[in-house]
Amino acid sequence: MNIVIADDHTVVRQGLKQILAAEPDMLVVGEAKNFGETLEVVRTLDWDVLILDYSMPGGNGLHVLKEIKHAYPRRPVLILSMHPEDAIAISALRAGAAGYINKECASEELTVAIRKAVSGKKYVSASLAEKLALELEEGSEGLPHESLSDREYRVMWLIASGKSITNIAEELILSPNTVSTYRIRILKKLKLENNSDLVRYAVKHGLVE
User: Fold this and answer.
1) What value, to the nearest 5°, has the Cα angle with vertex 81 and ends 65 and 84?
2) pLDDT given for residue 149 in this prediction
3) By the 8 A CB rule, do 151 and 179 touch?
């Protein structure tokens, strides 16, 4: 199994590589330290599994996950994160992740998760499985931000990251008026009043640091 590790901390990447080195059928073929490098690596290397840190420089984990799954729908992506499971794990699974691993449990769960993902199954911890079962019982329709379009999500993330309307317009090659329209639409969908509410929402759900 050819594995790519994407994490912005060198120590974490080295630790994961050490765990995988003990497995004769697992080979780390590439590494990335930000989302930009991750997208480049997955396009240029032959890989079977991607271990993706949810929070890295250069973008948003959920957005990048969706982009990779759109390009490589049959290849499993395991999300690695320090965030609590209830903050992002369910959103990641809905977006196509093959599983979620908390960094604190990586040494015990990593190889098991990889083998399960390669077999076409989802990997979730016992506690996360309980949360998923509860969501099914309650008929949950998902978190509000999951209803946003890709462009709306990007604008939301940039606002929550502290970018001004002008800066966002320049980055996305849009007019400030168009970005303002997106902002109004996003606040309405998330049932929020202002940018401060939006920042608090994004932090609460692990969408920004």
Assistant:
1) 115
2) 78
3) no
| DSSP designation for 204 | H
- 161 φ, ψ to 5°? -85, 0
pLDDT of 96-118, one tens digit each? 999 988 888 888 889 999 999 99
Sheet arrangement for strand 49-53: 27-32, 2-6, 49-53, 77-81, 99-102
Residue where a domain stops, chosen among 92, 112, 138: 138
Is the pLDDT at 137 greater than 60, yes or no?
no
35, 58 Cβ separation under 8 angstroms = yes
Of the candidates 54, 51, 9, the residue with the CA atom closest to the CA atom of residue 29: 51
CATH number at 44 reads: 3.40.50.2300
Whether the CB-CB separation of 77 and 98 falls below 8 Å is answered with: yes
Residue 144 above 80 pLDDT?
A: yes
